Automatic annotation (TrEMBL):
<dbReference type="Pfam" id="PF00984">
    <property type="entry name" value="UDPG_MGDP_dh"/>
</dbReference>
<dbReference type="Pfam" id="PF03721">
    <property type="entry name" value="UDPG_MGDP_dh_N"/>
</dbReference>
<dbReference type="GO" id="GO:0000271">
    <property type="term" value="P:polysaccharide biosynthetic process"/>
</dbReference>
<dbReference type="GO" id="GO:0051287">
    <property type="term" value="F:NAD binding"/>
</dbReference>
<dbReference type="InterPro" id="IPR036220">
    <property type="entry name" value="UDP-Glc/GDP-Man_DH_C_sf"/>
</dbReference>
<dbReference type="InterPro" id="IPR014027">
    <property type="entry name" value="UDP-Glc/GDP-Man_DH_C"/>
</dbReference>
<keyword id="KW-0560">Oxidoreductase</keyword>
<comment type="similarity">
    <text>Belongs to the UDP-glucose/GDP-mannose dehydrogenase family.</text>
</comment>
<dbReference type="GO" id="GO:0003979">
    <property type="term" value="F:UDP-glucose 6-dehydrogenase activity"/>
</dbReference>
<dbReference type="InterPro" id="IPR008927">
    <property type="entry name" value="6-PGluconate_DH-like_C_sf"/>
</dbReference>
<dbReference type="GO" id="GO:0016628">
    <property type="term" value="F:oxidoreductase activity, acting on the CH-CH group of donors, NAD or NADP as acceptor"/>
</dbReference>
<keyword id="KW-0520">NAD</keyword>
<dbReference type="InterPro" id="IPR001732">
    <property type="entry name" value="UDP-Glc/GDP-Man_DH_N"/>
</dbReference>
<dbReference type="InterPro" id="IPR017476">
    <property type="entry name" value="UDP-Glc/GDP-Man"/>
</dbReference>
<dbReference type="InterPro" id="IPR036291">
    <property type="entry name" value="NAD(P)-bd_dom_sf"/>
</dbReference>
<feature type="domain" description="UDP-glucose/GDP-mannose dehydrogenase C-terminal">
    <location>
        <begin position="303"/>
        <end position="395"/>
    </location>
</feature>
<dbReference type="InterPro" id="IPR014026">
    <property type="entry name" value="UDP-Glc/GDP-Man_DH_dimer"/>
</dbReference>
């Protein structure tokens, strides 16, 4: 079977390589000559665990081109960005991809749209573009097959997650389902195209609203003097409660975007829009916490650790770090950034020691695992403040090194270190400090760290 994949990004390329390593001849097509050249020179254009090895195994059956070729199956995995001004989906690339396929389309070919789109796009926009081939929808097959792969775990999730396959008609659904069974080990759920489009948006909107609730709990916890991280851990002991993690905001090209694809044609999505507003306001909230940490500090300098939109990825699309840095610089803060995963960013990226040298507050924005291992004794700052918006750092080491530690969602102003050994050790918010008189202090350990009481 010959497959032509249009769009060799975070979803299109792994999908193309999975088909190529499962016996299909695949032509990968991307309008970016740099992507095509990189692949034809044996190099993948972005990091994703396992993708390099997969590429080696796929080389015999995979070639990259800038234009599509005739094939049995055409798969569209192009970006569907959001117009930031109007909050309306931009389907230009989808329309163009369908237009590139039309001249090559024959009866009984299958066209699959993987890109995330507003409900109705497959029938209303893609089918008519393809019918310019002279072949009618139904004579060629057409389906919407949204992906569910978590960046950072893409390959595993593409194979093992269940999949929703939505056909233009029954024949399209069944044919597309058989196509994905070539490499999908998860369950295949068959439906129609519009339902599949709607389901994809529901999944990401559900996550965005859930994160907004966690962010609102974090702000409430600060008002009530509660540690939201301890509270969430306890609430989630309930068999039917699963509260997500608060953070500095929601980034990525999916969760921050997809809910708008549902609201663009509706006036009834109050909660969905409000959740987007809450999440998009979190960078402002982080700056509010920093102001409280640095009252009156002149020419304050902030060191941002982690500019990617989430931990252990190199992707900065819609990253909350971008808005945070803009807000902080507008307020006169000097901001320097360190991120071991990201190669190019809107702002200069510095080595850790240069980014932190002379800073008045270190702020953790991306939950990269490697940040946990930073030794506070090895960095030279001007004022020893740490704001952790992800609850990942090893607080004991930072407090004992004399840092004032603030955790987003922790409920009280931080005790400055140096007011006696006990308060120095409990230089965390009192809500995390030991009950006096304490002989041993047990601080909540970040997830995955051994619990340990110490004097
Ligand atoms: N985030 C939080 N708190 C959380 C979880 C995430 O603040 O508890 C933040 C992250 O830091 C990040 C943003 O939300 O900035 C999105 O991260 P994510 O891991 O939730 O989502 P994505 O965009 O990496 O991947 C999502 C996934 N969708 C769902 O989990 C429902 C993935 O399965 C989708 O395939 C992907 O979107 C997509 O491509 O649609």
């Amino acid at each position: 079977m010959k497959i032509c994949v249009l769009g060799l990004g975070y979803i299109g390329l792994p999908t193309a390589l999975l088909f190529a390593t499962h016996g299909c001849d695949v032509v990968g097509c991307d309008v970016k000559q740099s992507v095509v050249d990189s692949l034809n020179n044996g190099k993948i254009p972005f990091d994703e665990p396992g993708l390099s090895d997969l590429f080696i195994g796929a080389r015999r059956r995979f070639t990259a081109k800038t234009v599509p070729e005739p094939a049995d199956v055409f798969l569209i995995a192009v970006p569907t960005p959001l117009d930031p001004a109007t909050k309306v989906s931009d389907l230009t690339y989808v329309r163009k991809a369908a237009g590139m396929i039309a001249p090559l389309l024959e009866r009984d070919d299958l066209v699959v749209l993987e890109s995330t789109v507003p409900p109705g796009t497959t029938e209303r926009l893609v089918a008519p573009q393809l019918e310019k081939s002279g072949v009618r929808a139904g004579e060629f097959m057409l389906a919407h097959c949204p992906e569910r792969a978590l960046p950072g775990r893409t390959l595993h999730e593409m194979v093992y997650n269940s999949r929703v396959i939505g056909g233009y008609d029954r024949r399209s659904t069944e044919y597309a389902a058989d196509l994905y069974r070539i490499f999908v080990r998860g369950e295949i759920h068959e439906t129609d195209a519009k339902t599949a489009e709607f389901v994809k948006l529901m999944e990401n909107t559900y996550r965005d609203v859930s994160i907004a609730l966690a962010n609102e709990f974090a702000q409430l916890s600060e008002e009530c003097g509660v540690n939201v991280w301890s509270a969430i851990a306890l609430a989630n002991k309930h068999p039917r409660v699963s509260i997500l993690n608060p953070g500095p905001g929601v980034g990525g090209h999916c969760i921050a975007i997809d809910p708008w694809f549902l609201t663009e044609n509706s006036t009834r999505c109050k909660m969905i829009s409000m959740a987007r507003e809450i999440n998009d306001s979190m960078p402002n909230y982080v700056l509010h916490l920093i102001r409280r940490l640095l009252p009156g500090v002149k020419d304050a300098s902030i060191a941002v650790l982690g500019v990617a939109y989430k931990g252990n990825v190199d992707d900065t699309r819609e990253s909350p770090a971008i808005k945070f840095i803009q807000l902080a610089e507008n307020e006169g803060y000097d901001v320097r950034c360190y991120d071991p995963y990201v190669k190019d960013f809107l702002y200069p990226l510095l080595p850790l020691d240069e980014a932190t040298a002379g800073s008045d507050c270190i702020v953790v924005l991306a939950d990269h695992d490697c940040l946990r291992r930073i030794d506070p004794a090895a960095i030279r700052v001007r004022t020893k403040n740490l704001l952790d918006t992800r609850h990942i750092m090893d607080y004991r080491r930072w407090v004992l090194e004399g840092f004032t530690v603030r955790i987003l969602g922790d409920g009280s102003p931080t005790l400055p270190p140096g007011e006696g050994i006990e308060s120095r050790e409990s230089g965390l918010s009192p809500s995390l400090s030991p009950p006096a008189p304490a002989v041993s202090i047990s601080l909540p350990r970040p997830p995955g760290q051994e619990r340990e009481d110490f004097l």
